Amino acid sequence: MTALERVDRAHTSYRSGARGPGLLSRMRERRAQREYEASVLAFAHALRGEFREACTGLGICHYVQVAVGVTVRTPRVGEVRPGPPLTFTVELLPGQEPGDFVRKENAPRLAHTLGGHGLRVEPLAGRWVRLVVLQHDPLCDGFGLPSLTVAAGAEAVILGRTEDGVTLGHAIADPAHLGVQGQNGSGKSAFCYGLLSQLAAAPDVLVAGSDITGLLLGRAWDDTAHRPHQVTGTADIGAHAVLLEDLVAEMDRRLEAIPPRRDKIEPTLATPTVLVVLEEFPGLLRAADGLPKPKRGEGVPLGDRIRSSVLRLLSEGRKAAFRVLMLAQRFEATAVGGGYARDQFALRLSFRVPADSLEMLHGTDARHLGQEHANAAPGVAYLSGLGRDCERIRVPHLGEYGEYCDRLARHARRVHR
Ligand SMILES: Nc1ncnc2c1ncn2[C@@H]1O[C@H](COP(=O)(O)OP(=O)(O)O)[C@@H](O)[C@H]1O
Ligand SMILES: [Mg+2]
Q1: CATH classification of 3-134 is 3.20.20.120, yes or no?
Q2: What's the gap in Å between 56 CA and the centre of ligand 1?
Q3: What would the pLDDT profile of 169-183 be if each residue is shown by its tens digit?
Q4: So what's the pLDDT on residue 101?
Q5: Would the CB of 364 count as within 6 Å of ligand 1?
Q6: CATH assignment of 156-411, among 3.40.720.10, 3.40.710.10, 3.40.50.300, 3.90.1150.10
Q7: In the chain, which end has fewer C-beta atoms inside a 10 angstrom radius, N or C?
């Protein structure tokens, strides 16, 4: 039996012991309490030893020269709470930072030594931090998306759940463009099935855009108010350019019509928030750039028309209630219309990607997360934005593709006749 199991058993017998008025039961209760306290002390002692060894092994320690040779100093452990989750406070050594425990591979190794799956570090006052040992990967469990729709763009849709179980929401009316990257099969499209199905019924939201795959947009939206503003397939790339240019023209009309003393359009039924979905956008650009170019003076190449329309929607659309949702396997500057275009995404999500792609979209803060994330399961993503640090989330899953079609057929806004 491990020290932690002893704590558990002593705690159970202390809590479940009979509490009666008699002297005997009071004595029994006191003994159970003493045994519980002793088991916690024994556990804390064992934990201090394991933590010290783990720190030494990982080099989170100081080597001090003394007369008889070298001695190792490790961060001091303060209060231990068996939990669950197991938490304990630690005093950092001079020169150490809270991040040292979660740097590179330290966190999982420390956690595994202590019998957990992961580690969270919470800075306390002064040089003290609290370490929380997570018992299992909270993102292993998928979570289903109930058949929900928002009644207005100002209402938050569910984006995902964080490692500490917080459900994150985002309102499409908030002025942020969304960038989503991930390798093939990492769950980008499935995430958007969930997102778009939640938005499809709102009377002040229009789901428009371009989708060369024809799965996210297109047929599933037939007979809805959104469908006329969507272009799919690769047979007619020109149609994608025309749609995007029409959206830019609508944006310009709205920008001209901003009322005096206002700096943005308020979405209404007549001027809904337009979500411009760009599924596999680098693929659209590649297809457009692969077509024969018009002769000099006979028009602008399709790829350039698409790039410049999207750039205008990204840089000027927010005030006019336009939001861009771009999906790409990799947010390389050249693949998404330039570094300036990439900088316009306030909300950024990365499903499984190689470490360099993660850093490209989330900055150097995400560097130490890269190695683990390169093997992330479908539906697990890193999120930056919403005023929070880059963090790992699991996005909700609505199920099979057929369920997406059913939900749109049931809820999506229809044309008023
Ligand atoms: N949130 C999720 N939870 C569980 N499985 C998922 C999730 N998202 C996607 N998947 C699985 O991964 C597969 C690929 O997802 P998909 O969205 O098509 O990837 P991508 O668009 O990035 O290529 C799906 O068919 C589904 O089985
Ligand atoms: Mg896809």
Answers
A1: no
A2: 41
A3: 999 999 999 999 999
A4: 77
A5: no
A6: 3.40.50.300
A7: C
